[in-house]
Amino acid sequence: MPTPSMEDYLERIYMLIEEKGYARVSDIADALEVHPSSVTKMVQKLDAKEYLIYEKYRGLVLTAKGKKIGKRLVYRHELLEEFMKIIGVNEEGIYEDVEGIEHHLSWDAIDRIGDLVQYFEENPKRVEDLRLVQKQNDELNE
Q: What are the alphabetically sorted keywords of the record (predicted)?
């Protein structure tokens, strides 16, 4: 299993390839706000673990294993963002919250959160009920 840092790179590489059709070291560095030499070192590690194929000066390609994990990591991130919205977390802080927790949850926990998100999407009245409870609690805490 990849480390949290490897996961961040795989997630971003997968997203770049989906958006642009390719991912260069400079694109990854810009997206993750890191130095290109850091990207090169990590890409070499990911190549050694067979998540991607990297050729110096020629770019990189995700392997089937890398694509599968990248897709799952993007799903995890998007699912957690949706969960945060449903439970009423301030939109401005959602990205940071997701980045802070996504590597610390088991895939079983992610699957259960997915079930909960699906439940709320299929039962919008429950989201309204949740908002009412939150409003009442906020008023009590003022």
A: Activator, Cytoplasm, DNA-binding, Manganese, Metal-binding, Repressor, Transcription, Transcription regulation
